[in-house]
Amino acid sequence: MVIVHTKNGKVVSINGTFIKGLQGGSSASLSEKVALKYATDNINASVYMWEIPGADAELQRIMMDPSLTYTPKGELVYVSGDGTYTPASYRLAYKFDVYAAEPMSRNYVYVDASNGNILAKVDRIHNYDVASTAITVY
Question: What is the mean pLDDT of the chain?
Answer without folding.
Answer: 92
